[in-house]
Amino acid sequence: MKPVLAAIPAILSESTSASPYLMIIITFTGIIALLLLVEQVSYLKKKRFLPGPTLVLPFFGNAFSLVTETTKFWDHQASLAKSSPVGVSTNYVLGRFLLYIYSAQLSHKVFTNIRPDAFQFLVSPFGKTIFGENSLMYMFGQEHKNLRRLIVPNFSPKALATYTLLQQRTILKHLKSWLQKSTTPIPLRLLCRDLNLETSQTVFVGDYLSDEERNMLNINYNYVNQGLLRLPINLPGFAFRKAILAREKLTQTLGSCAQKSRKRMENGEEEPSCLIDFWTQENLLREKDGDHLSYEELGNLLFGFLFAAQDATPSAMLWAIALLDLHPQVLQRVRSEVAEHWNPTTLDVDQITAEKLKKMKFTEAVVKEVLRMRPPGAIIPHIACGDFQLTDDYVVPKGTVIFPSVIDSGLQGFPEPDQFDPDRFMEERQEDLVHKRNFLAFGTGPHQCAGQRYAMNYMVLFVAMFATLMEFKRVEEDSRDALVYLPTIFPKDDCNVFLSPRCKGFPC
């Protein structure tokens, strides 16, 4: 044995002299192996005692299953986290250590700790480049508080009442067009998206957009969405670059709407007719103290509003239709309640005002139950800005991407959480107050959705009008209610339904 060992150096020496590249190959291979070992050890060190894969592919990790089997991937993470004593599971994707949080208590903890040394909301890994440093979602502390204070007048009772009438006209317009397409079953996902985009534009900037500008806004908005899902290659011709340029154009377009609004509002004789008018009115009052926003800042914030509103509401609309279809007794109660306050056959003179909307308590409870069971943002990504003590035994490492599960939180604490039961939100039971920390559809803490009341009013209005004006029946399909992440959640069948007019003579 000793002679063999003694011969190895000679063999290597001879091989090296015969092939000078052999040692380079051996060295390079050794470096790669060392890097892979370090990566694996680093993952295991961060993972510690939490459930998750023990071995992961270098760099890519489980990216393939996340992309090709998204629903299965997140279901598996939820199952692992649920089985964990702390309600957390781990994974590794594209060089990033991931935490999935099942526990409602810990999800609440993440939402309430948005600050420079804890967590930051993460639209996408490279979203800040697209949205800009001054986006509301990336702000912290006093700067964030000051800006949210300037937003408050946009959602006053008077403003919400104005928006309700604008929303109602747009909803009716689209429901009419849906019926014209309904000779065969129609999937509603894209139709709800188009409805919501027009509603947002109308409510936010009213008539300040020309038809051409509306068309370009839709095109540029799609560029932004596509760029968020592509590699961050900031070169001409690439989707990421197009998204950055599209956001700049959107900001300019919306900023010009603010300029037009100022010309209309500055004499103080005009009543606000859309959100930018309410904002301009408040902005003019604050100009004397220098506490106001520039047109560019207004345009940037309006774009943020548009983005926040666009994907979540269509998801909630589809799940409301799907769940009402599954629960005809709930649908009948909605129709009966709406009939007490609104007669659609006299739509030309009888509108659903904000006052009438407030009286539709059961319809509002239905919307809350939809959001509890199927929150559009089922999992909300954040990134750890620093090491954070999540539990007594576990510190989240800096750079970790965390996914607090809103959908899992809503299924904890509530009695019979898998049952669609809107009565839980009625005054007699008030489970929304008892289990407030588990109801995270609008987030909580400093970054809680600023337009929560706006979104609720809009959804109650849509459910009331759709249930009253339409007869609908979903097509029976296997796994039609399976979750699809786009990135908000939608039913697998895109809510494929038969539609017909319910009230005689509709459209009214």
From TrEMBL:
<keyword id="KW-0472">Membrane</keyword>
<comment type="similarity">
    <text>Belongs to the cytochrome P450 family.</text>
</comment>
<dbReference type="GO" id="GO:0000249">
    <property type="term" value="F:C-22 sterol desaturase (NADPH) activity"/>
</dbReference>
<keyword id="KW-0479">Metal-binding</keyword>
<dbReference type="InterPro" id="IPR002403">
    <property type="entry name" value="Cyt_P450_E_grp-IV"/>
</dbReference>
<dbReference type="GO" id="GO:0016020">
    <property type="term" value="C:membrane"/>
</dbReference>
<keyword id="KW-0408">Iron</keyword>
<keyword id="KW-1133">Transmembrane helix</keyword>
<dbReference type="InterPro" id="IPR017972">
    <property type="entry name" value="Cyt_P450_CS"/>
</dbReference>
<feature type="binding site" description="axial binding residue">
    <location>
        <position position="449"/>
    </location>
    <ligand>
        <name>heme</name>
    </ligand>
</feature>
<keyword id="KW-0560">Oxidoreductase</keyword>
<feature type="transmembrane region" description="Helical">
    <location>
        <begin position="20"/>
        <end position="38"/>
    </location>
</feature>
<dbReference type="Pfam" id="PF00067">
    <property type="entry name" value="p450"/>
</dbReference>
<dbReference type="InterPro" id="IPR001128">
    <property type="entry name" value="Cyt_P450"/>
</dbReference>
<protein>
    <recommendedName>
        <fullName>sterol 22-desaturase</fullName>
        <ecNumber>1.14.19.41</ecNumber>
    </recommendedName>
</protein>
<dbReference type="InterPro" id="IPR036396">
    <property type="entry name" value="Cyt_P450_sf"/>
</dbReference>
<keyword id="KW-0812">Transmembrane</keyword>
<keyword id="KW-0503">Monooxygenase</keyword>
<dbReference type="GO" id="GO:0046872">
    <property type="term" value="F:metal ion binding"/>
</dbReference>
<keyword id="KW-0349">Heme</keyword>
<dbReference type="GO" id="GO:0004497">
    <property type="term" value="F:monooxygenase activity"/>
</dbReference>
